[in-house]
Write a structure and sequence with these properties.
Layout (H helix, E strand, L loop, with lengths): L4 H14 L4 E2 L18 E6 L2 E4 L1 H10 L3 E13 L3 E4 L2 E4 L3 E11 L3 E6 L1 E17 L3 E20 L5 E13 L2 E4 L2 E4 L1 H23 L4 H11 L2 E6 L5 E18 L2 E16 L15 E2 L6 E10 L1 H15 L4 E3 L3 E15 L3 E12 L6 E13 L8 E10 L2 H11 L2 H11 L4 H16 L1 E3 L2 E12 L3 E2 L4 E15 L3
Parallel strand pairs: 1-23, 15-17
Antiparallel strand pairs: 2-16, 3-16, 4-7, 5-6, 7-9, 8-9, 8-15, 9-10, 10-11, 12-13, 14-15, 15-16, 18-27, 19-20, 20-21, 21-22, 22-23, 24-25, 25-27, 26-27
């Protein structure tokens, strides 16, 4: 990623020139240019992709499917009070069997739907009004009311094609069984009501799985899968940086229900790639793969970001530093004060992993035998850093002059002088810390909450590590590997 390039690459020159023991070479031309590009390896991540479903629609559909009046009761000439043998004084008597007609209606109240853990719970309150008519020819009518509660507990599963299946466990109980009190006896109508209640329970057992299958979970999963083939912008400009996401596999790790919200726990194994510049072409979409079981905790984001210093942006930084320093003479050991005027600066990646910095300037010795010289000095060096460090060091430093033999001595003497090196070093010598911190701040802001179409992408960087500093034809770069958490969810506007 190109960011803070002038500061970073300028350090190359500054540090090289500031190093003691730099080698002076014979006069020569520019070092050979490197043409290699920065290789950005792809990373594999398991991104959390929660899919949520609102169960309120399921409740509304069940309301439509199950009538308010569940059934009616019309049982003629039923035994209301069975015959019993009783003892009166010393005589055993048998009471008569009392018969009656039983009528009534049973209605339900509003369905409620809730969830706990993996259970989807549908509760149906029931109200029964039962009448006993012409009881033994003694009482014309008695009315009983009763309440029951039906609880249906559903659990979901997904087949390999991502279609939901449901198993239902239904239980019910009378909270106040239907009865009347007659002649000191309790007349129960529970059996009559139960025979009807079993029918509506069976209906609910058929209806609930069918309606659960209509949650469109597969359609939402397929839609999320297709839209996840995209590129996420990590840095807007100077330059633009993108992370391309290519889904590889979708894994299922169960679900949870909270109130009326059902959330599938999914992990999308994806390949993430970093691109600098224009937005890369979105990867070609592949069909939704069969369901795979979740093998690891979802939400793990792996990314690679090269902190890149653009060679082109280095040149004016070095030039400005040298022009400012040329306001006073350089003290060159053995030669005394030397005045210099600096011109064009050129920087690029050289072969064999080296950085090349060329500086045009003229030098004049005050009162010496060397007089004046004009030409170009080249510095080459191999960048290096300690493991896990962003501080830049250099090895194999070499300084050569692109001049004739007469000019070379004066120019190379100036280039190797402490004053020359210190000027560039003080102006430009630094490590990657500032650039790195700036980069991480931009990336963290970019991916904290990002919308791509109907997708809402959230990510958090938790840990980073740096690799080995490299010089390529495209730029000087420090590999940065990062880990964090991420989730992608459907969020239509």
């Amino acid at each position: 990623m190109y960011i803070g390039g002038p500061r970073i690459l300028a350090l190359v020159a500054g540090a090289c020139l500031a190093l003691s023991g730099c080698k002076s070479g014979e006069a020569g031309g520019p070092p050979p240019r490197a043409s290699d590009t920065i290789a950005v390896p792809a990373q594999d991540s398991v991104i959390a992709v929660p899919v949520t479903a609102d169960l309120a629609g399921l409740a509304r559909q069940l309301e439509r499917e199950i009538p308010r009046q569940l059934w009616t009761i019309d049982e003629r000439d039923q035994v209301c009070v069975p015959s019993e043998r009783i003892k009166v004084a010393f005589v055993r008597l048998k009471t008569p069997t009392l018969r009656c007609d039983i009528t009534g209606t049973v209605t339900r109240g509003a369905l409620t739907l809730s969830g706990r853990g993996q259970d989807i719970v549908v509760t149906m309150p029931i109200r029964a009004v039962v009448r006993a008519r012409d009881i033994g020819g003694i009482l014309k009518q008695e009315t009983a009311t009763a309440d029951a509660r039906v609880n249906a507990v559903a659990r979901l599963s997904l087949d390999r094609r991502w279609n939901p299946r449901a198993t239902i466990d239904i239980e019910y109980d009378w909270t106040d069984a239907p009865h009347v009190d007659f002649l000191g006896q309790r007349i129960e109508f529970t059996n009559a009501a139960d025979s009807k209640l079993k029918g509506i329970v069976a209906r609910l057992e058929r209806t609930l799985p069918r309606e659960l299958a209509k949650l469109n979970l597969r359609a939402d999963i397929d839609r999320l899968w297709g839209q996840a083939f995209t590129s996420l912008q990590l840095n807007r400009a100077n330059p633009a940086v993108w992370m391309r996401i290519t889904p590889q596999q979708l894994q299922y790790g169960g679900y949870s229900v909270n109130g009326r919200r059902l959330e599938l726990r999914l992990g999308m194994r994806a390949r993430t790639e970093t691109f600098v510049g224009d937005r890369p072409a979105d990867p070609a979409r592949t069909p939704l793969p069969p369901l795979a079981r979740l093998a690891e905790e979802p939400g793990k984001l792996m990314f690679f970001i090269p902190v890149i210093a653009d060679y082109d942006e280095l040149e004016p930084v070095i030039a400005r530093a040298l022009v400012k320093r040329s306001a006073r003479p350089f003290d060159v050991p053995g030669l005394g004060p030397i005045e210099a005027k600096f011109g064009r600066v050129e920087a690029y990646g050289a072969t064999r992993g080296r950085v090349a910095v060329g500086v045009e300037f003229s030098a004049t010795q005050r009162g010496g035998d060397l007089g004046s010289a004009r030409g170009k000095v080249w510095l080459t060096a191999v960048p290096a850093n300690e493991a896990g460090s962003r501080e830049v060091g250099f090895s194999q430093v070499r300084i050569t002059g692109d001049t004739d033999r007469a000019d070379a001595d004066l120019l190379l003497a100036l280039a190797n002088s402490p004053g020359f090196a210190q000027t560039i070093g003080n102006a430009l010598a630094q490590n990657f810390e500032r650039d790195y911190d700036e980069l991480m701040g931009k990336v963290a802001t970019a991916i904290e909450s990002k919308r791509e179409g109907d997708l809402l992408i959230r990510a958090r960087i938790e840990d980073v590590r740096t690799g080995e500093l490299k010089a390529a034809g495209q730029g000087l770069y420090l590999p940065v590997w990062g880990t964090g958490t991420a989730d992608i969810r459907l969020a239509p506007r």
